[in-house]
Amino acid sequence: MRPFARRPLFINFDSFTDGDPDFKKEITELMIDNLQEMQQVLIMAFKQNDAIIFHRVCHKIKATLEMLEDKELLEIVEQLKANLTNADQVNLLDRICVDIIASLQEHK
């Protein structure tokens, strides 16, 4: 398993928090929770061949996905929503989430 990679974040926290460090921490923790939930559901949905539960979690965390403004993340999520049978794509999304979470934890 490869180590966590620093991934650039494209989110402008100040536009969402007005520079409030407590609110930034709260949003960051929520984003981390959302990405971890998506990871868990992704693996379960892939194993059970149940794209519906993956769609539901993506809808639930839509605001987080949009706020992150990470093109690669958004593209792979859309690809998996269309076809949840590619193990390489599932692994790629999982790695992207791990890297984004590591970067978010540095910004708390």
Supply the number of helical segments: 6
The portion of residues assigned to helices is over 70%
Shape: elongated
CATH architecture term: Up-down Bundle
Biggest sheet record: none
Number of strands: 0
Average predicted confidence as pLDDT = 93
Can you tell me the number of structural domains? 1
Q: Over the alpha carbons, how many angstroms does the gyration radius reach?
A: 14 Å
User: What letter string, H or E per element, gives the SSE order?
Assistant: HHHHHH
Query: What is the CATH fold-level name?
Result: Four Helix Bundle (Hemerythrin (Met), subunit A)
Which CATH class is shown? Mainly Alpha
> Approximately how much beta-strand content do the residues carry?
under 5%
List the uncertain runs.
none
Q: What structural class is derived from the secondary structure elements?
A: mainly alpha
Distance between the termini: 25 Å
Question: Top keywords for this entry?
Answer:
elongated, 108 residues, mainly alpha, 0% strand, 6 helices, Four Helix Bundle (Hemerythrin (Met), subunit A)
